[in-house]
Amino acid sequence: MNIRRSAAALAAVAAVAVIGAPAAVAAGSSPSPSGAPALPAGLYGSTDPKYDGVWRQSLALLAQHTVGVRPAPQAVDWLTGQQCANGAFAAFRADPSAACDAKVAVDTNSTAAAVQALAALGGHDAATGKAVSWLKSVQNKDGGWGYTPGGPSDTNSTSVVIGALAAAGEKPAAVVKDGKSPYDALLTFALPCSGESAGAFAYQPDKKGALAANADATAAGVVAALGQGLAAEAGTGHASARCSDSGTATPARAAANGAAYLAHALAATGHLTSALPGAEDQPDYGNTADAVVALAAQGGAGQAAGPLRWLERHATVWARQSGPAAWAQLIFAAHATGTDPHDFGGTDLVKALDATGPKPVSHSAPARPARKDPDGEENGGDSGHTAAWIAGGVGAVVVVGAVVLVAVRRAGRTERRP
Questions:
Q1: pLDDT at 268 over 60
Q2: Burial letters for 102-134: b for 16+ Cβ neighbours within 10 Å, e otherwise?
Q3: What is the CATH architecture of 13-360+369-411?
Q4: Which of 97, 107, 140, 283 has the greatest count of CB atoms below 10 A from its CB?
């Protein structure tokens, strides 16, 4: 996911070697260009928000809510102020007082992430309602969504929208275009249980229609197939030890197969490997965090124990360099596995995230919303909502545009099985 989840093709990065620095950092962590204007009040993070402002703000607010933090009003106001009159969000609007026109590049990922955050906070039904209406209006005929309106559907974008629909009280299975639901689209990206990529999700088909395994897309797809989103709750089922094509293809089966793929990919080292150019031999911290959420959502916290321990040992240095979205991803991993976010390998994730933005109003016990199954029915009071992902870079990174990240995700990375 780094849905980055993922889906979240909100920023692109170019690798720059930095000795001793973690290889992958969250999108939006690139240095601000020299002479950049002062950042808006209420915005989380200290880097240029051009490509990821709404995404990182949404993740920060959602993560705070997940751990019982009431964010500062100005932080919430900044996010709601980014919305266009038609309900959509762009990655960042430098002048939110100006009306959105055709030059404002609205996208599904920013919009869906904002819906998840604002729905969790409560009291923003008008804003989330308009956003959901816009998302429905740009649904593709295959039932899915691309990053930009009208663009070809991909796993990550479809997943983050599923999370938004569930968060807003919609039944994703009932949101159809030409008879196709988001789950129908997801199933078209799922690889069969044969070969070295068995059970994975592809980002999207290549020009010849072939599917290539993509760990980022797989983590996003697993969570979305379960009807959850970014702040997913631990599941009560059992992760499949192996991929299975028996019976009818269903979202639940695709989620189990995807989790089996991730478990295999993580087994040797406890972490996923970056697919970005120049970083192929480096850990992908963000995708590993998303994989932890996916494994826990599918089979319970115990299924994610190995990579969770790896994150606790290694990922906080990455998060310090990367900013609010990275801290939020670690909080989501802690939340999904029942890990104390105030003592994550010795680091207080909540304090670290709080420090990247305006001082929160208060801290209290976190809310735990009921999970919705893929059919839209509530399944107890021990689950949550969401989908997707910002991609990581290597060491110091330079933001070069969302198109590059989309290309990287399309290329994917096939994890080899022994």
A1: yes
A2: eeebbbbbbbbbbbbbbbbbeebeebbebbbeb
A3: Alpha/alpha barrel (1.50)
A4: 107
